[in-house]
Amino acid sequence: MSAPDASTPSIPAVLTFAGTDPTGGAGLQADILALASLGCHPLSVVTAVTVQDSVGVVDYLPMDAEWIADQARAVLEDIPVAAIKLGMLGSVEAVAAIAEVVSDYPDIPLVLDPVMTSGRGDALASEDLLAAMRGLLLPQTTIITPNSLEARRLAENQKDEEDDLETEEPEASLGLQDCARQLIGLGSAYVLITGAHEQGNQVINTLYNVRGVVHRLHWERLPGSYHGSGCTLASALAACLARGRDVAEAAREAQDYTYQTLRAAFRPGMGQFIPDRLFWARESDD
Ligand code: PLP
User: Fold this and answer.
1) 161 CA to middle of ligand 1, Å?
2) Where in the chain are the domains?
3) In what order do the strands lie in the sheet with 202-209?
4) How far is the CA of 59 from the centre of ligand 1 (A)?
5) What digits encode the pLDDT tens for the residues 178-214?
6) Is the domain 13-147+227-282 a CATH 3.30.230.10 member?
7) pTM over 0.85, yes/no
8) What is the whole-number distance in angstroms between the Cα of residue 18 and the centre of ligand 1?
9) pLDDT band at 156, cuts 50/70/90?
10) CB-defined site of ligand 1, < 6 Å
């Protein structure tokens, strides 16, 4: 076998930590498809095994935290990694283990998809896990990609913790810009809040940094409900960062790619539609 030399084209490797989804709609399988579709080599660490169909998640088994760290360290010590993406993490212990691993690689861009529920609403993360995410992962995050519900939950619980120290008075719910400010205050350099759960004919996704809004992109609202759209967006972002785009450009390209996967979505079973991460491979069939 001949050894690779300097003339061998290098494929950027992206490391994803995620739960497996046997339907191929979300989780690790979604990440692998999106990363490969965008020209990256997917490295994958299993954080949990789920039992689910295209309707919803029935159960999940978190992977032992030490096993998660060992899987990651083995590939990180072998293969240069251009970006890291985090999805469903499974347990507080896993969050702590992953936070420790990624802290050894501060120069690798980190994309955090704060997975909390399945599309049907089945819980995939506890409040303790979210607290660990806020304290241990946000300070290391390049960009977090919550939908508007996740952004409110992450930011408002942080506010509740602060309020408990100051006053018993309940406060009005936070606007999305305030949520972004909170998440940036916790250490994430950028926040991309997706707006599919908000009202309106268009879906508005907004990218923020410490100075405020970086860009706001409007997308035609597509009918139907999709399984794996958040995983697709976050993986696409990691792929674009791995290919050298800056964060704003990566966010724009990742949204455009995700929109195309949703327009080409298919329904393999009796539940939700699945984004077609390989839509381009089927275009010649039309
Ligand atoms: N990861 C796993 C393993 C899942 O099962 C799910 C949803 O069911 C998700 C992530 C989140 O999926 P989505 O991209 O639809 O937010």
Assistant:
1) 27
2) 13-147+227-282
3) 57-62, 41-52, 13-20, 83-86, 110-112, 143-144, 190-193, 202-209, 212-220
4) 13
5) 999 999 999 999 999 999 999 999 999 999 999 999 9
6) no
7) yes
8) 9
9) confident
10) 18-19, 21, 26-27, 50, 52, 57, 87-88, 115, 118-119, 227-231
